[in-house]
Specification:
The structure is a homodimer of 123-residue chains. Chain A has 123 residues and is mainly alpha-helical. Helices cover 66% and strands 3% of the residues of chain A. The first copy, chain A, is built from five helices and two strands, in the order ααββααα. The longest helix of chain A has 38 residues, at 76-113. At the A-B interface, α3, α4 and α5 of A face α3, α4 and α5 of B. Chain A binds a DNA duplex (30 and 30 nucleotides) through α2.
DNA sequence: TAGGAACCTGACATTGACGTCAGAGGTAGC
DNA sequence: GCTACCTCTGACGTCAATGTCAGGTTCCTA
């Protein structure tokens, strides 16, 4: 498929896809005229990339770990970096759960008292 | 306390604290010479701000919700925004848990096979 | 074969949360 | 009062993942 189709299929912009290629994260075959063509599995890879981005992992780090994620085989160095990312993701989850509790307590208190108190709107 | 102490106490840079004030997130008393002075509770507020930032909430949104988080009273509009942020945090957590599973499956596979296979190092 | 949609490269713009630097003034211990 | 450190404002720099625009080429359908 061409880049536009991949973009609509994955919900990622054309610009972002070209950026992924620029970063070495996503390969493409080129037609004689220079247009990019992708196999079907490219969509999965794009989703994987997005997922790793969402975990706060940089493109350089993704580049490093991507082949391992695909092949399932990693050198010890890459392995330890993966473990590092893993624990950072775990910490992010814990922090977010903390935040969730904060928000929940605010929501609980606010819902109870928003009729009687002085509601705050804009600063 | 002065800004340097607050910075070391919270692990947030002096620059960031001034930025928070610039955004209206953190107030300070000024001495006659113009230096910022903070009460002890400022440290808690800074931590709260950091927590909200970590949840991907923008400074404008934090500014809006901060008084409510402190007082526990919110207007219906702010309340619905808070709910919106809540669900976005929930989604972030779910996404990160997905990523965690991905990383774990990679790690499991890689640990098993990193002696026999062709390890991938740098691209 | 015409014309509009899709694509190309290249380059500059954007956004948010700071980093950093300059030049000047404040604070505190001795 | 000296000295070392702290703080001030203001302004420009950074970084990463895109957005956007320009000027040109390619594809597809009627």
């Amino acid at each position: 498929m061409r880049i536009g189709e991949l973009a609509t299929k994955t919900g990622v912009s054309v610009r972002a896809l070209r950026y992924y290629e620029e970063q070495g994260l996503l390969a493409s075959e080129r037609s004689a005229s220079g247009q990019r063509h992708y196999p079907d599995q490219a969509a999965d890879r794009v989703r994987l990339i997005q997922q790793l981005y969402a975990a706060g992992i940089s493109s350089a780090a993704i580049l490093e770990m991507l082949p391992c994620v695909v092949t399932g085989v990693a050198s010890p160095q890459v392995l330890s970096k993966l473990r590092g990312h893993r624990s950072s993701v775990v910490k992010q989850i814990e922090d977010l759960q903390d935040t969730l509790r904060q928000l929940d307590s605010v929501l609980a208190g606010a819902v109870k008292s928003h009729e009687s108190g002085v509601p705050c709107t804009s600063p």
